[in-house]
Structure formats: C-alpha cells, structure tokens
Design a protein that fits this description.
The protein is mainly α. It has 3 domains: 83 residues; 215 residues, no CATH class; 139 residues. It contains 32 helices and no strands. It is elongated, with a radius of gyration of 35 Å. The model has no long low-confidence stretch (mean pLDDT 87). InterPro entries: COBRA1. This is NELFB factor. It holds the Pfam family COBRA1.
Amino acid sequence: GAGQAEMYAGLQELGVANGEDLKETLTNCTEPLKAIEQFQTENGVLLPSLQYALPFLDLHGIPRLEFHQSVFDELREKLLERVSAIALEGKVEERYKKLEDLLEKSFPLVKMPSIQPVVMCVMKHLPKVPEKKLKLVMADKDLYKACAVEVKRQIWQDNQALFGDEVSPLLKQYILEKENILFSNDISFLQNFFSPSPKTRRQGEVVQKLTQMIGKNVKLYDMVLQFLRTLFLRTRNVHYCTLRAELLMSLHDLEISEICTVDPCHKFTWCLDACIREKFVDNKRARELQGFLDGVKKGQEQVLGDLSMILCDPFAINTLALSTIRHLQDLVGQDTLPRESPDLLLLLRMLSLGQGAWDMIDSQVFKEPKMEAELITRFLPLLMSFVVDDHTFTVDQKLPSEEKGPVPYPSTIPEAFTKFLQENRIACEIGLYYILHITKQRNKNAFLRLLPALVETFSDLAFSDIFLHLLTGNLTLLSDEFALEEFCTSLFDGFFLTACSRKENVHRHVLRLLLHLHHKVAPAKLESLQKALEPTKQSGEAVKELYNQLSEKLELRKPSPAEVAETPSMELPLPTVPTPASR
C-alpha cells in the first residue's frame, strides 16, 4: 500500500534497491529466475564465506528472510551500542560531528520500523538536533510519539503551545488528586490532608513526570512556572502553589543545579520545606527565613511574587498557622504580649505574604502587604484571653465549690472576635486554626462558644475545603457529643446547614461526616438531618452518590417490622396534637 511505499522510499535516496526496483527488474527481463539470483547477489550480505553457508541453510528449510532478519537484528544491536559509545568518547565537537553524519545518512529511513530505533537513538544523544529534522519529527504524529524525551525537550522549548498540551492533562490530574484527598470518605484526626511528608508528596506521579519532562532545561522549567502562575490567577486554586514548591524541591532532590541555582526562591523554599516536614518553624529556621525576606534587594522585588506563591501553598500556611497557635500558648505562660515576640511577628509577616499572593501576582505590584496593627494589638490578645478562660475554668472545676455552685463556662463571644473573622483575612485564618486546635483537644465548651463566629467569615474561609476537611477529622474526637441534641443543633443547624444549599462542597463534607458518625447521632436528629440534606435537582453527582450511601447505611440500621411488633407499647394512645414548628 501507500504506507509501505512511503516506508521504503528512503532506501532509494541511499542508493539501496527496494521492492520497486525488483518489480522493475522483473518486468523488463527475459529470464526471471536469473534476474532474481543476480538481484540477491547484488543486494545480499557481502561476505565471501556466506557464499557456501547460505545453500546449507536452504537445505535446512530456513527462509532467507529469517536469516537476513537475524543478521539485521544483530547488526542493529551493535549499532545502537556503538551510537551510545560514540556519544561519550573523544572530543565533544568530534563525537557530535560523527553523530550528525550518522543522522544525515539514517534519517531518510526513519519510517522503517526496523531502522527507526537507530535514528531515534542518534537524535537522543545529540544535544542539538538540526532544526530541519525537528520540524519533520514535529509534523508527524507517530514520529513525535516515538521520540525520546531528550528530543522532545528540544522541540518543546521553542513550542510553548505544544508543551502546554503535554503539561495540561498532568496539571488537571494533580488538582483532581488533591480534591480526592480532601473529599475522601476516610475521616480521621490521625491521617489527614497534611499528613504525608514533603518527600513522600514529591514522589507523586505528576511531580515525577513533570520533573522528567523538564530535565535540566531552564526554559521548560520557566514555562511550567508560567503555566502555574497563570492557572493560579485564573482559578485562585492554591494547589498550584503547592505544585510550584514541590517541583522545585523535586529538582533539588535530584541535585539539578542548572535549575536550582537560577531559581531565586530555591534556598527559601528549601528552608521552608524543612519547617513543613517538622510542622513547626523553629527559631533557627525563623532567622534564616527572615534573612531571605530582608535580603530582597531594590530592583529585585519581583522575587516577592514567587516567594508569596511558595508561602501560599496550603502546606506552608498550615505550618505557619500551627506555629502561630503554639507561640500564642507559650506567650500566655510567659505573660508576654504578641507585639513583644519577634518570632510571632515573623510568622504573621509570612502568613500575610502568602495570603497576599493572588493580589500581588494579579496587580504586579511587588511589595510586602502592610501588617494591620490591630491584628497584633487586639486580635491576638483576644485569642490569648480564650486560652486564659480555659485555664481558669479548668482550675475552677477543681476547687471545692462554695454555696454559689459551679462556675459556668463563658458562653458569649466578644463582638470584636466575630468582626475580625469577617474582615481580616489573617485573623480569620488564625482564628480557624485556633478552633481546630480546641476541637483536637476535645474542648467541647470552647468549640460551642466560638462556633457561631464561623457562619460569616472572610471570603467564606470557614466553608473552604481544607478547613472543613480538618474540622470533620477533628470532630471524630468529639463523637460521643453527637448523641446530644444541643450539640447537634449548634453544629448542624447553627453552622453546616446555613451554607449547604448555596455551597455544594459543604453539603459533601456534612454527608462525609455523617457517613462516618451516623451511629453516634440521636435517631430523631438523624431523621431531620436526612430530610434537610436531601439532594436537589441542582445537586452534583458527588452529593447524590454520598446521600445514597448514607441512606443505605441508615436503612440497615432500622429495626425490622417483626422486632417492632414484639415490643408491646406501654403508653396509652394519645390524641394527636399538632406540634409547634419550633421543636
């Protein structure tokens, strides 16, 4: 067919006879058998010793094709070994000259399946494949596919669109993987989104593939960073910031200095990576990080855009926020004010820089966001006062009670706290982490006291997936409280259900939580929740799927009709009275 003809067309360029020549010879000759014999002699393997060996093989019924094929395979292996050897020996210019000559000779046969591996091998070892050959490869889907990544890199670096097509599905896959973890049906306070170490995360498929695609090519690395910045701007999705840091650290693991030394964030990211591993910013590393931030020189402010993206990675924010809560507790013990703690101020500075990443990259105004004094002089002392309230309450419980009876837990929230959570992004982030902290301590009183402040928060942060993922995990520690009407009403009616109808993700998180804890919830409450959480026409597949799983579990819990019949009712039938709606 046409494909065959195209495949062998290259032979004529090299002065080697092909099927077409044989056809022509046979068409124009008087003695076909003699002509075939002559064609075999002219185009066979030119080894004198073979003259006698071949008839011997014929006697054994071994087809000539099989013989030629095995000779050919043997030669190809030798050639491939030789090409790899040439690529390493002699002076640089000489070895590449040899390979370029070989490429010139072999390229016409690139379509022949048997020769293709040799051509590909030669190109793979050439640091600069001639432009014309790259264009031919690019224009042919099959050739492009068969190319080694070393050759593809040379094609990609001048074809951003083509490279984008290759990278795009990987980035989609990465975001999906992150979301699957956040919505996973396994809920636990021991294992959560932030559990895997940075090293483990970098072994992920997408990071590994991207690392492989980039190799040592700074231009491709820059392109990937550009894609990540653009996508982060377009979607505000912070997982792109995680990938930015993971990619750099993956190249760091492989000691690819060609890239690491030119990325101005390298040392900062490396130091922060160590903090993320420990889930804490210690004093020594805090100094180091501060040194990097203070060292940003005039005229180089653009690096702040990159640093802010590194700090906007949820794993970085998680580490900074956890460290902030720990510092606040220490300050309570030391009777020190937040403004007197340089370490705490540095954590806040990095949190602001991270939280300001989107605005900075969007506006292209590269300067550190100003820290609001109120955050330090009013909000953090407020959080410290909550810590003090807990200490006081605990001590009061232990004192012998006088006539006046036990001291109740403070139930009101200072209005300033609620206002800060609504209006100040950093305050909101720290406030949410404080609530995660008290939940993890199984401090039900403090949790119920602060929960109402979460209904309205800065850009709905309390309904973000990362917070809800962590909250649902920590709530499993309070699982026994779910039997209590008051607790459930505060948590579900007072918080979750306020957003379920307008936020699909909240709907999903509540269903995840109930799938895990339904057996702890009082039956009457469970029934009303099942009604309230029924999917609507607008609900997505994930919500419907979770709701069905929950309904199946609840079906299995119901007693069978036989069991119900066996328990005689002790009460007299009462006339039915319409119940007030408030119940």
